[in-house]
Amino acid sequence: MKRFRKIAAVVLVAVFMLSCMSIGAFASDEPRTITIGTWWDIYYDSTHTALEDDPSYTGSVSDQMRFDVVKAVEEKYNVKFQYVNLTYTGITESINTSILAGTPECDIYLCDLTMGIPAAVNGLALDLKTVLPEDADILSDQTVLNYLDLGDGKACLMKQVLGQNVVEATSPLAFNKQMLEDNNLEDPRDLYARGEWTWDKFVEYCQTLTQDTDGDGVIDQYGFTGFKEDVLSNLLMSNGATIAAGTEEGLSSAATGEALQFYYDLYNTYNVCEPYVEQDNGDVMRFTYRNGNIGFWPSAAWIASTNADYDWDGSVGSTLEFDTVFVQWPTGPSGNQETNKAKLTAGSFWFIPNGVEDPELVYNVFEALSNWYNDDVDIRDDQETMWWWYATTASDPDLQQSNYDVMFDLGSREQFDVYQSLEAQVDGWDLEQLIFGTMTAAQYQETYRQQFQAAIDSYFG
Amino acid sequence: MKAKRFLALLMVTLMVVSVLGSAGAWADAAPASVDFEDGSMSFVSVYSGMANADASALEVVDYNGSKALQITNGSGKVPYVAFDVASLLGDKAGDVASIDMTMGVVNPDGEFYACSGNVMLWVDGALSSEKHGWSVYMETKNPKTANVTLDPAKGEVFSAEQPLMVVTLEVDNGATAGAANATLYIDDIAFKDADGNVLEADTAAAFTAPDGFGGTKDMSNLQYLGADAVELEGMAGKAADGWAQDGVDMTEDFLAALVPGAVIEIEYSSESGDMWIVMPDATVGWSRVEQQTAATNLSKNICQITYEQIAAVCGDDVASWGARLQCEASGAWEVYSVKVGQPTGLKNLAGKTEIPDMAGKAADAWAQDGVELTEEQLALLVPGSVIEISYASETGDMWIVMPDAAAGWSRVGNPNDGQSHAFNGSVAQVTYEQIAEVCGDDPTTWGTRLQCESSGAWEVYGVSICSGAFKNVTGNVEIPEMAGKAADAWTQDGVELTEEQLALLVPGSVITIQYASDTGDMWIVMPDAAAGWSRVGDQAPVCDGNMAQVTYEQIAAVCGDDVSTWGTRLQCEASGAWEVFSVSIGTAAE
User: Fold this and answer.
1) Disulfide: which of A3, B135, B366, B462 matches A90 by Cβ 3.0-4.6 Å?
2) CB pairs under 8 A between A and B
3) In whole angstroms, what is the distance from residue A13 CA to residue A189 CA?
4) Is 0.90 surpassed by the pTM of this model?
5) Could you tell me if B268 and B398 lie in one domain?
């Protein structure tokens, strides 16, 4: 019996040691598998064996580089990695359950702002500043990855730096080049370059351009027009103001009040705006510039392409007789041209959840994967891929480049502010109350301040 | 020594617990209202009221060590599985505060693909827009428990009027990747009250469809037959493989109704979506009629073949057609009913605006009752519009009265007075043009009161003013790349049409879109038209929240008569977030 006990003890000890070895000793040799949760299929990863595994493979240089970087990353970091499509509902569930339980199912999550913001605010997403050295790309040069600044000093939500990611969703101020020239007004781009492009100067320009051109006693040319949502967001950013950029509403701030007052004054004090079409959803007021009687308007590449303003694909011929030129929005009294943000944050992000083993390794792998173009930005943002962004806003190549540069500059200065997403929860909110002068800026702030705070409280959880 | 015994006992206990746990013996230990162990699923039904609804097969099978409800996808669309919670729980249904249930997915190829869907309640006579997502997103967590917490503030309360819980499987990564559709398993449904107590269910309860549940039979592209249509006995349940026939001899009643103008209507399922008839004993020889060309609804589960189409193949003399009628399809098929009747002229209508105060109006024979129309309702009476009445009457007829018309007190559509309009005993439709014929062309002279009347005692269940009628379309060719396109409000998405698809756009052609949108509307965009970026059909959309149609002529009115200038891209758009389930191009039957 004693011998049996001894044998049993030896066996138990052996089993225990083997068990321990399986956790520790063997782990160092096996490549770690890094799981990246998504809600759409992304190529390439360690499971793919051929370029053709990507259904959208076209044989381009960038396809080959995205395929090759997989092997390079695997060897450099001794890892395997896999994009796993969890579905949108699944990724939301995984974030809210597994990270909270301390055992994240993925090493990196793709997210949109709806899931990313609560994850960052509630501590589910890792603050990269706590694990990365200061010279990590995302915390320094930001040539490969940047992060969404939520104003809390943390770096949780990553975004890959791509030309298209930068220029998309930008809303530059556009002007009618010939109209300004006909009125002997200096190119606003030059004023901006000298730091002289301000709200005051903008009003001065608009007043000059607002005219009765045929002498019938009726104003028929206007300094400014624009869809209400496009205008407010840019006036806010140009004055350093936000409404829902954090857990405290900014509607009642002085800077927001100035932006609202300026919006009110453009229509009701300076009277330099084209009459606004009531309850327009953007179909009308975004496009009246095409009539050729508007000096300035909020534009975008997609707005210019909607009616083929400049025949970007050569199929229909240019449909405008004047040139559209993009410029940064003028700076408001509380704004600062050097620090003003210029594009509302949108789109998808990535984050490493808290609780992941060796997050620095995970970050390094993700940065290396994201830099599949090996720092060659010309390949990343090759002209063929980006051609539409150049050609759609102008016919003249110099103007195409200039307009693209403005979009890129605006897109490089993102502002996190989710106020547009929350407007639907604010009963009565309608900027036409300012446009038509039925409410003053101060009344507007006071009327909707509390509702906005409630919506923000709900959003940030 | 005692310590050793204690340790030994502890180890044995741990081993037993471990073995029991790993074998899944405790898998069903959590209390459930419905565990399917008795094999009953009488309280479950497939819901087919959505344009993207799949005709899924339901069965209780062994799954993961116990019995579970198996939902097998039939056509690649979205399964909607309805549970009659009110019948299951009786007077406790209103106590349900949360629901737990086990969800599992299996793909026929043996691989794991993540799936997700929604759980919804039946609120105010329709599926609620309030959705509770479920997902099975990792192989190691398949099956997995889904949790739903109801929000009474949003109407999520079970009752006799709101009896249903509907479960969908909407995202199937396997199908997206080109594999077969996943099979869904549901087990161990626990309906819990606010204190977390699991409510006991009567699993012998029978599914009782609420109002509206079965009222959405897809009649797109089809004619409505009269209530006196004759069923061909013996056909229900007939089934065969692709290109194989089966049928019965036509009964005397059926033959008596098979007269000029008559329409044979077949309800069926087939792997290929098609269905036609065969007359094997026709004097002209064994004859297929409308092989792969029969008028078919968009759900591809009802087709119609006219008397004239049979006569074109078998001759004008019915006596020479032979007694036997068979069905056939190019894929394995099953038939649920075959009937013949006369079309009533009722149309599939779009853009319905209900006149709420009309519901419940009733009167004796030749007595009228109605309402004063509001300015908004009167403004809907424009050329092409149709008044639709849902009703019951002792004599089966129903028409309207305009008592204050300048032309005098006016009946419109009284069949006893030689006036014609479409009705079938439960639905009547009166067109703007029929009213104009009686009351004059100027609707401002029609008066503001609208009344109903019948030759028998009657009751009206609902009256709507509809913006127009859908066209019946034949020869629909689907644009497969459009399925699944989706975007936010006022955002477009679409495809580049092939040359073959562009060639389908000829005068008389119709683009039919099956969709869902938050606002119910849907139209198309031709972004590359030479006339400029163009919306078509947005001003007066012919749509009903499930289906929209845009005609060639509507596009031509915006983009010009030359199709070659329309550009090659076709996009969809709506004023609310939208998703398209199918887009097809066919030819108007009228």
Assistant:
1) B135
2) 59
3) 78
4) no
5) no
